[in-house]
Amino acid sequence: MTPAYQTILEETGDFIVYDEALISAPTARLFCPEEWGHNVTPHSEGRGTVWFVEQGDNRWVLKAFRRGGFVGRFIREHYVFLGNRRARMIREFELLSRLHRLGLPVPRPVAACLNRTGMLSYSGSLITERLDNARSLALCVSRGELPEDHQWREIGRMIKKFHDNHVFHSDLNAGNVLLDESAVYLIDFDRSHIRPSGLGGDWRRANLQRLRRSLDKLSAHGLVDLERPWGLLRDGYDGAGAR
């Protein structure tokens, strides 16, 4: 299938992909928070800071890619370059584009930029449309403000939609599940991928258990009992319960 986006290779070696229906001829400056002046505000939740951009009708989220784990203590924002199409922000943009076309509940990608920082290294950023009035499941649970029963079921149904499309989310945790009054979304698809069909269901179970572990960490102090909510989520995933 022909991608529904355009690419730019700048003289500096920076590689940009973008949705021409949302933006035209972007440059690497688009991905620099300081270029936006008073139209950008930082937002911190999870591993690092993202930037909320507001200009005219545009309401975007700008994410600079940062390493986590042990390696991230020493190398925060540089990755080994193996080709433009294999860069993490480019792969996430392309996956989000595909998922959005499938009608799955993800933020629509606007653009991504790979910055060559050396012969064998790169850094980069991704811009997506902002999901207004949505907050993370992690924030709800940590505040003891549990979603309604129907929302737990809808979270389960939402995850099942991704799994039925063979989408493996590499970091399925409560911070990457967003809720608003009428919908549930999944965000942050770095290192995620679509798995070949015909594989067993172990990866699905492991994906769900990753989400459960993240919820257990949030309720570790006994402030929230998640047994019933988790049962509702599983009802939604398994196709049981009221809609």
What's a concise summary of this model?
With 243 residues, the protein is of the alpha+beta class. It is 27% helix and 25% strand.
Biggest sheet, open or closed, and with what strands and sense? 8 strands, antiparallel
Number of domains: 2
Q: Identify low-pLDDT runs.
A: 69-74
Helix content: 25-40%
Write the element-wise H/E pattern from the N-terminal end onward.
Answer: EEEEEEHEEEHHEEEEHH
How would you name the oligomeric state of the polypeptide chains in this document?
Answer: single chain
Number of strands: 13
Distance between the termini: 35 Å
Sheet-strand content, in percent, reads: 15-25%
Task: Indicate the mean pLDDT.
Answer: 89
Please report the number of helical segments: 5
Q: What is the CATH class of the largest domain?
A: Alpha Beta
Protein architecture, described:
It is a single chain. The protein has about 240 residues and is an alpha+beta fold. It has 2 domains: about 120 residues, 2-Layer Sandwich (Phosphorylase Kinase, domain 1), CATH 3.30.200; about 100 residues, Orthogonal Bundle (Transferase(Phosphotransferase), domain 1), CATH 1.10.510. The chain has 5 helices and 13 strands. Helix 3 crosses helix 5. It is globular, with a radius of gyration of 19 Å.
